C-alpha cells in the first residue's frame, strides 16, 4: 500500500479545523524503534521536516541498530533524540561509547535520559540523574537533554504510591537545569484524561518546577492494544477512560483516537497561555503511519517551537 504523501498546510482540508488544537499540535514529536522504523519506506512521506523523532531503546536492542536508525532519520532531515536508559548501560565507558557513536555517525546532539524499564540495573547506573552527573553529554556537545515525567505517578520510583520520590527527582533536575547550559524538558508517559494532566502540570509550576512539558499522548490504535500498553506501563487514573469506552459495545471495536484529550488540553492552553505544556509527544501504538496521518488531518505540523 502506498504511503500517504505529506501535504502542505494550505492543502489540508479545513472544514473541521479547530484553531486551538492546531496551535497545540505545532512542534509535535513522535517515537519510533529500529524495528518499526524498518517498516517505513520513506519517513518524508509521513513527517514534516525537522520533526523531533525519539528512538526508543528497548532492552536487547543492539546499539548498532539504534545508531543506524538515528543516522537514517538524521539524513532525512529530522531532529533525532535517542533514549539513554540508565539501567541497561553497563558503565561509564559504555555510555561514553554510545554518545560518541551517536554524535560521530549520526550527528546527534540531543537525548532523552531515563531510568529505563528494567527492574535491576545491568551495571553502574540506576537513574537519569546519574547519567547527567557524568558530564559526558556536555563534553560531547549535546545541547538538549530531556528527562522523564509521570503525570500519574511511577510505581517503580514510588512503589508504595504517592509521588514523594518522583517530586524529589524533579526538583534535582530543575536545579541541574538552572546550574548548567543544558536545554531541558520533561517528556512524559502517556495518559488518556486531561484533568489529571492539567492538575499535575499546575502542581509542578506551584512547586517551582518550570521545565517545559512535552506531554505524552498515545496515537490512534485499537482499544485492546491501548489497554494492554496502559496496564504494562503503569498508567493510572486515566486508564478508566479506556475501561469506560470498552464497556460501550458501540465503541468497543472502533479505533481510539486522542481527539478528546488533546482538544481539552488545547482549550486549556488557549485559555491559559502560561500553562507549562509546550509540545505534544506521540507514542504511535497503532502504527507510525496511522499516527502521522491523524496529526496531518488535525492540522499538526512540526515547526520547531520557540522553546524547543
List the helices and strands and how they pair.
Blueprint: H1 19-25, E1 29-32, H2 34-37, E2 52-55, H3 63-75, E3 79-85, H4 92-106, E4 110-114, H5 128-133, H6 136-139, E5 144-149, H7 164-179, E6 183-190, H8 194-206, E7 213-218, H9 223-232, H10 239-246, H11 249-252, H12 259-271, E8 277-283, H13 288-297
Parallel strand pairs: 1-2, 1-8, 2-3, 3-4, 4-5, 5-6, 6-7, 7-8
Helix pairs in contact: 1-12, 3-4, 9-10
Number of strands: 8
The residue fraction in helices comes out at 25-40%
Largest sheet: 8 strands, parallel, barrel
- Distance between the amino and carboxyl termini: 34 Å
Overall tally of domains: 1
- Mean pLDDT across all amino acids: 86
CATH class bucket: Alpha Beta
- Going by CATH, the architecture would be Alpha-Beta Barrel
Fraction of residues in β-strands: 15-25%
CATH-defined fold name: TIM Barrel
Protein name: 5,10-methylenetetrahydrofolate reductase
Keywords: Oxidoreductase
GO molecular function, one term: oxidoreductase activity
Describe this structure in words.
The protein is built from 13 helices and eight strands. It has 308 residues and is of the alpha/beta class. The protein has one domain: TIM Barrel (Alpha-Beta Barrel), CATH 3.20.20. Strands 1-2-3-4-5-6-7-8 form an eight-stranded parallel barrel. Helix 1 packs across helix 12, helix 3 packs parallel to helix 4 and helix 9 packs antiparallel against helix 10. The radius of gyration is 19 Å and the shape is globular. Keywords: Oxidoreductase. This is 5,10-methylenetetrahydrofolate reductase. GO terms for molecular function: oxidoreductase activity.
Amino acid at each position: 500500500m502506498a504511503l500517504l504523501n505529506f501535504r502542505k498546510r494550505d492543502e489540508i482540508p479545513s472544514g473541521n479545523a479547530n484553531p486551538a488544537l492546531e496551535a497545540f499540535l505545532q512542534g509535535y514529536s513522535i517515537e519510533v524503534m529500529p524495528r518499526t522504523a524498518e517498516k517505513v519506506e520513506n519517513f518524508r512521506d509521513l513527517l514534516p521536516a525537522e520533526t523531533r523523532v525519539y528512538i526508543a531503546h528497548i532492552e536487547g536492542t543492539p546499539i548498532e541498530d539504534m545508531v543506524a536508525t538515528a543516522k537514517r532519520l538524521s539524513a532525512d532531515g529530522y531532529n533525532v533524540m535517542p533514549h539513554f536508559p540508565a539501567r541497561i548501560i553497563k558503565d561509564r565507558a559504555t555510555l561514553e561509547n554510545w554518545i560518541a557513536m551517536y554524535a560521530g555517525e549520526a550527528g546527534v546532539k540531543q537525548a532523552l535520559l531515563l531510568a529505563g524499564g528494567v527492574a535491576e540495573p545491568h551495571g553502574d547506573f540506576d537513574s537519569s540523574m546519574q547519567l547527567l552527573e557524568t558530564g559526558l553529554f556536555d563534553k560531547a556537545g549535546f545541547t538538549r537533554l530531556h528527562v522523564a515525567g509521570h503525570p500519574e505517578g511511577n510505581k517503580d520510583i514510588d512503589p508504595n504510591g504517592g509521588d514523594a520520590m518522583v517530586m524529589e527527582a524533579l526538583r534535582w533536575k530543575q536545579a541541574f537545569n538552572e546550574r548548567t547550559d543544558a536545554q531541558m524538558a520533561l517528556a512524559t508517559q502517556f495518559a488518556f484524561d486531561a484533568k489529571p494532566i492539567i492538575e499535575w502540570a499546575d502542581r509542578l509550576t506551584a512547586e517551582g518546577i518550570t521545565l517545559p512539558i512535552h506531554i505524552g499522548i498515545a496515537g490512534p490504535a485499537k482499544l485492546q492494544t491501548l489497554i494492554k500498553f496502559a496496564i504494562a506501563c503503569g498508567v493510572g487514573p486515566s486508564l478508566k477512560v479506556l475501561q469506560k469506552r470498552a464497556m460501550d459495545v458501540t465503541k468497543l471495536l472502533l479505533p481510539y483516537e486522542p481527539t478528546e484529550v488533546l482538544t481539552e488540553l488545547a482549550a486549556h492552553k488557549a485559555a491559559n497561555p502560561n500553562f507549562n505544556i509546550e509540545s505534544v509527544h506521540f507514542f504511535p501504538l497503532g502504527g507510525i503511519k496511522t499516527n502521522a496521518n491523524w496529526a496531518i488531518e488535525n492540522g499538526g505540523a512540526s515547526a520547531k517551537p520557540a522553546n524547543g
